[in-house]
Design brief:
- Helix content is 37%, strand content 21%.
- The strands form 2 sheets. A 15-stranded mixed β-sheet has the order 9-10-5-11-4-1-3-2-16-17-18-15-12-14-13, with helices on both faces.
- It has 15 helices and 18 strands.
- By secondary structure, the protein is of the alpha/beta class.
- It folds into 2 domains: 237 residues, 3-Layer(aba) Sandwich (Rossmann fold); 164 residues, Molybdenum Cofactor Biosythetic Enzyme, Chain A, CATH 3.40.980.
- β6 and β7 form a beta hairpin.
Length: 420
């Protein structure tokens, strides 16, 4: 294994896995496998990139660090020469972490002196300029992310956000340095880490910039960022003749289908509105889940009753409703109840014969795949930007799509079911 990735949620793991699997256009990528949690056995022969999906984004910083270090040690044992810490392209975290503490712990584990920090994902409108993160034409703190129920982002300056989370020095390399090319950027990164261990926020406003940055990270023991940071990382090994480039692909499965959605992002709400124009949709009331009126059985019955119609059940709501419910019942209680509901529902659906499963929302995806205990997933082609088709192993394979809240076109859910 050449590259190892530690992802702080399950949808983000799929996102970077398909990036590594695709590689640069015309060149191909690496044989990539996504692992759901830290494996207990060695990787299969021939795996060139391993992506470990953790559900650590919403844990305490100490728990996130412990899980990430365990993942790092397993990846090192597989021979990985470069570790990537993958977090959300909107830098989802609080002032306590977890991006800073995890990066600091991994840098110490790998003795990395100069560590790139770049969540840019231009294909989804996320760019970094002058150290500030933008979502399309808005600073992060004006993009809607300031209302996120778990990790409200109220500061677009990544240097300030990161410095509040870590004791390491945080510096910045601007776009003018990136524009000078990969070798100049590589030298600048090296200089940043000569005096002391340093986290370097690097600007990127296009895929060309990310390709330049990826090439500049050749040989770096630790790189951090969104999935875009991995665009050119396979190239570094292919150019050395240590990998040959490949194209991802899986055979679509037939069988029953289900869509489970727990994200409350604006994009997801729009996708649900679009889906219900032609497909059956069931909304879950949070209060009814908490008082026991609604449970897995009701969701399973609805989905099985509408087979062949791409049925969807969701707990999504507008930010005002979510905030009211959290104040009334408590954020942790609601999150735990919904995670349990979706996890149990997924288990019952698979037991009832569902073979195609689309999940919306990072936390919901984590709950579902954890409940199903699928192990390793093969990476297929992209359904939409950052969202690949995935297939589990075994005698009864399951096809999945795990969608981050803000990803996908308005008709994503129907297309995802069809593509699986």
């Amino acid at each position: 294994m050449l590259i190892g990735v530690i992802a702080d949620d399950f949808t983000g793991a799929s996102d970077i896995a398909v990036t590594l699997s695709k590689g640069l256009e015309g060149e191909g990528g690496l044989h990539t496998v996504q692992y759901l949690g830290v494996p207990s056995t060695p990787a299969a022969a021939g795996v060139e990139a391993g992506v470990i999906a953790l559900k650590s984004r919403s844990l305490t910083a100490a728990e996130a660090v412990a899980q990430s270090l365990a993942a790092c040690r397993w990846l090192q044992a597989q021979g990985c020469e470069q570790i990537v810490f993958k977090y959300c392209s909107t830098f989802d975290s609080t002032d306590e972490g977890n991006i800073g503490p995890v990066t600091e712990a991994l840098a110490a584990q790998l003795d990395a002196r100069s560590v790139v920090v770049c969540p840019a994902f231009p294909a989804m409108g996320r760019t970094v300029y002058q150290g500030h993160l933008f979502v399309y034409d808005r600073p992060l703190n004006e993009s809607g992310m300031q209302h996120h129920p778990l990790t409200p982002m109220t500061d677009a300056d990544l240097r300030r956000v990161l410095q509040r989370q870590t004791s390491l020095k945080v510096t910045h390399l601007g776009w003018h340095k990136v524009a000078q090319g990969s070798e100049a950027l590589r030298e600048a990164l090296s200089q940043q880490g000569q005096a002391e261990r340093t986290l370097v926020v690097v600007d990127a406003i296009s895929n060309h910039d990310l390709t330049t940055l990826g090439r500049a990270c050749r040989g770096a023991p630790l790189v951090t960022g969104g999935s875009g940071i991995a665009l050119a990382l396979p190239h570094n090994f292919i150019a050395q003749g240590r990998a040959h480039g490949r194209q991802a692909g899986i055979t679509p499965l037939g069988g029953a289908e289900a869509i489970l959605v727990g994200s409350c992002s604006g994009a997801t709400r729009g996708q649900i509105d679009e889906h219900q124009k032609q497909h059956p949709v069931l909304m879950i009331e949070v209060e009814s889940v908490l008082n026991g009126t609604t449970g897995p059985q009701q969701l399973v019955e609805f989905i099985l009753m509408h087979q062949g119609e791409a049925p969807l059940v969701y707990s999504s709501g507008d930010p005002q409703t979510v905030e009211r419910l959290q104040k009334e019942y408590g954020r942790e209680r609601i999150a735990a109840a919904l995670d349990d509901l979706f996890g149990q529902t997924a288990r019952q659906l698979v037991a009832a014969g569902v073979r195609r499963l689309v999940v919306g929302g990072g936390e919901t995806s984590g709950a579902v795949v954890s409940a199903l205990d699928l192990g390793a997933l093969t990476i297929g082609r992209e359904i939409d930007t950052g969202v690949p088709a995935l297939v589990s192993g075994g005698s009864r394979p399951l096809a999945l799509a795990l969608k981050s809240g803000n990803f996908g076109a308005r008709d994503f859910f129907a297309r995802a079911v069809n593509s699986l």
